[in-house]
User: Which sequence fits this backbone?
């Protein structure tokens, strides 16, 4: 995996039913916009609000339709569920498993180390770590990532901590074995790329896939100033949909831009008028 990926939203109908037709359309739209791979059943996908059967349907549908690599979120609070979802993703043909830190209980670094090593030992597909303290309250420490990166089946990580300094520390500690560290915070995309990120798995790439891809392409071509300038243009809209208005706001913006985002599932509520006005202003500036 290299480059830019959206943690793809899951389209629901207004009634809250899974909308697989819209999912197929959305995959086509993202591929046409130039993203490099897709991530399914992550935080932005509302995966915790889906049943295991729905998550399986999402993966099966996407893998049947996508022509670019697909990474599938399979992490659950416990080991047996994580192994079961990872095995299913492998059966269906996923290119890798993105495994969030086991949440709900406040596990320490030693427990996280043992958990990921057990998962990687049993998984038939490459394992990617996923640290998103905003949702789990747990951060994978750089030293823990350093140790896990030595495992032959742990090949990368999505870091959604939002801390550039911790991101750089992690890169400095990584063994020289091709481990792929992706930034998950759109506000630091360009600096993270310059620090050595393999790319970005970004919620904002659902809204601005072409623009996010352009930042990565500029970086790859050595046009670092251009990458910084183009990345800075995306900071405000990124903050709005990841920090202020959440997934309902993100999906609302996607619909305004013509993407097949569908709607969010309850208990999420549609953005209020003031939020829509602010998002419209940010879109106009963009």
Assistant:
């Amino acid at each position: 995996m290299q480059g830019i990926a959206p943690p793809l939203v899951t389209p629901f109908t207004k009634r809250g039913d899974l909308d697989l037709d819209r999912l197929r359309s959305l995959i086509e739209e993202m591929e046409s916009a130039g993203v490099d791979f897709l991530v399914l059943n992550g935080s932005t996908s509302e995966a915790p609000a889906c049943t295991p059967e729905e998550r399986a349907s999402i993966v099966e549908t996407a893998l049947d339709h996508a022509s670019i690599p697909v990474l599938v979120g399979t992490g659950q609070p416990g080991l047996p569920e994580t192994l079961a979802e990872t095995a299913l993703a492998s059966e269906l043909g996923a290119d890798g498993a993105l495994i969030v830190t086991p949440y709900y209980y406040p596990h320490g670094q030693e427990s996280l180390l043992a958990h990921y090593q057990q998962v990687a030992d049993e998984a038939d597909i490459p394992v990617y770590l996923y640290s998103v303290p905003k949702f789990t309250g747990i951060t994978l420490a750089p030293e823990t990532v350093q140790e896990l990166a030595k495992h032959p089946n742990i090949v990368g990580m999505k870091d959604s901590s939002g801390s550039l300094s911790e991101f750089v520390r992690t890169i400095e500690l990584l063994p020289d074995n091709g481990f792929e560290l992706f930034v998950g915070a759109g506000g630091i995309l360009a600096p993270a790329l310059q620090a050595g990120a393999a790319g970005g798995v970004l919620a904002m790439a659902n809204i601005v896939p072409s623009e996010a891809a352009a930042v990565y392409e500029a970086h790859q071509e050595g046009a670092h100033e251009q990458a910084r300038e183009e990345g800075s243009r995306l900071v405000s809209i990124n903050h709005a949909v990841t920090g202020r208005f959440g997934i309902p706001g993100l999906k609302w913006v996607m619909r305004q831009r013509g993407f097949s985002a569908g709607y969010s599932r309850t208990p999420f509520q549609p953005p209020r008028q003031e939020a829509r006005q602010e998002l419209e202003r940010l879109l106009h500036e963009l």
